[in-house]
Structure formats: structure tokens, C-alpha cells
Amino acid sequence: MFEFINQELTELRKAGLYRELRLIDLKSHKIFCSNDYLGLSKHPKVKERAIAAIKEFGFGAGASRLISGNTPLHEELEHKIAKFKKREAALVFPTGYMANLGAITSLVNENDTVIIDRLNHASIIDACRLSRAKLQVYPHKDLATLEKILQRSEKFKKRLIVTDAVFSMDGDISPVKEIVALGKKYNAMTMVDYAHATGVVEIEGEPDIAMGTLSKALGSIGGFIAGSQGLIDYLRNKARSFIYTTALPPAACAASIAALEIIESELQLKKRLWKNIRTLSLWERGDGSRQRVRVAESSIIPIMIGSAERTMNISKKLFDNGFFISGIRPPTVPEGESRLRITITADQSKEDIECLASLLQELIPAAARLT
Ligand SMILES: Cc1ncc(COP(=O)(O)O)c(C=O)c1O
Q1: Among the options 80, 196, 220, 281, which is catalytic?
Q2: Domains in the chain, please, with CATH?
């Protein structure tokens, strides 16, 4: 009966696409694939506030927000997010994945269309499928095709454009301002997923729906939607991934509140992050010459390899040399576009970054010479 499981696992192994968990030992390995961009998950103030919240509220929230799971910390966090994003209101979800799911499935249905960038995150794609709206995909950052799709889509009742702000596997930035302008021109709603931008880069443009996660540069867990008060009231009533799930643990809210305060007060963290990004993207060799690894627009620096097998081999060699960088393979990225997805964080040392750059140069000279 379960023969298909063995067959499919064998196929995955053969194609070099079999996934396994790797146990991380922070003592033996330098992590260059975490999304904890500002190192806030380990910031003393974040830990302190989370511990204080556990002492006051216990751990689990015990029920959904609309039943008995709503604490003052949940509401304080939403006020802080709204202020941080300069929006009227915000709604917090247990994860970013659930924020995308809840928002998109509430905003569009089978009478509507949702128009997305080809490289949008899986949570957006899953949400679009679940919404039953007609899914239309434009080539990566191709505004001309997006406009053509909008012109051809007048028959739909509602139109929603969704894009990542920083693309999660490529690290490049979406033309948010131009997309918002197209949305206004064609009377389409615009939604931007700021998961990898928050705390890292400011991007111009104000979409109707701003989505973000608390789980990356904020070092915590949770997702959010920020926008008009009407939008938030609507989602509180309609978003199934908000209504039918237990609220975030109060301690997670406390950690996120502390993280937002740190982002606003300890500006040197972001400066350090960008200094580190520049160190890897333009590292200086021993002879004084400069070598560009990759032009970086964010803390995500992918090194394109191509074959899944070769990617995993290089990832293993890096691991054997003390660096943990996971290989990214299909279906996360398109066929033939496997890569090492390096991420830079504020707490990495210059020495470690330079050591990684020389290792990359040794293991993949062609890729490391990308300009
Ligand atoms: C672009 C993007 N959106 C949404 C998510 C989901 O966020 P979370 O991990 O908080 O569920 C992620 C990452 O996981 C992401 O990279």
C-alpha cells in the first residue's frame, strides 16, 4: 500500500534531492545560512524580556486570540508593529507562512485573480492555490509583463498583486514603488512580503498590504500583516489561519517587542550587518587586490552552482571546513539553478567572513569570480 513512499524516496535520492536534517553545533561550526540577520535571537534584552513574560504568563497562550489567548503583550506587539511600519494597524499570526495564507485566502477567491512574481516564496504560492483565485505569474521583476497581465485581467472582480520585497533565495530587491504605481493605475490591490527586508533594507513604496515575519531579523517567531484599520478588522474576522489556531506564546510577543525596540535604538547593529555584507561581497585578498564574490542588495548572497549534486558536495566540503551553508535545490529553486545560499549576519566576525571567502575561491573559483 505504501510502496509509493519507497519509490519516491529512491527517486529523490537518485536525483540528488533527498532532504535530511543537519544537527547544528555552534561550537564547531560557523553558521552562514541563518536568517537571524541582526543576531537578535541571542540579544540579552530579548532573552530577558522573554523570560520575564514566561514568569508572568507561563509558556503557551492556551487558546486562539479570539478565545482566551489574547494578552496585553499581543496587543502591545501589534501597536508597535503598526508604528514601526507606519500603518494604522497590524495583526499578528503564529508564523509568517500563516500570515501569507490568512491574508491572501481572505482577500481573493474564485472570482478573482492573483498576480505574482515567478520567484515569490512558497508560502505565497500555497496561499494563492488555496484561495482558488486564478493564479497568473510574471517573469522575475518584469514590470512590462505585469502591466500586460493587468490590462488583460479586467474581467476579474478583484485583482491582487503579490511580491517578495527581498527575494528569499536570490537576495535581490523587488521594484515595489513601480508595482504599487501599477496597482493604483489598474485598480489592483498590492501586497508585499517584507520577510527578508525588515531590519535589513528600506524599500520605497507603500503597498496596501504589508506582510512581514518576526522570525528573521527580529530573531523571534511569528508573522504579521500591517495596513489600514479596515484591512486589519477584516482579517481578524476572515483569516482562517488567524482564527483557527492557538495564539503566539506571550513570551514570543515579548521577545519581538524587545527586538523592535533594539532595531530602533541600536543602529550600530544594522551598520555592522552591512559592513559584513560588504566584506564578503567585495573581499580583499592577501595581495591587496579586490575580488567581488557577488553584488549584494541584502544579507542574502547566493552563489549559483547549477547541479543539485555539485551544490551538495560543495556544501559538505564547507561543512567539513567548519562552515555551515545549506545547499538550495529544486523545488525550492528552479531546475538547474541549485545554489549555496549564503546569509550574512551582524554577529559574524571579519576573520570568519574572509576565511569563508578564500574557501569559496578555492572550491568554486568560477562562481566566486562573478561580478
Ligand atoms: C519571503 C518569505 N515569506 C514568508 C516566509 C515564512 O515566514 P515564517 O518563517 O515566519 O513562517 C519566509 C520564510 O520562511 C520567507 O522567506
Answers
A1: 196
A2: 44-265 (3.40.640.10), 267-368 (3.90.1150.10)
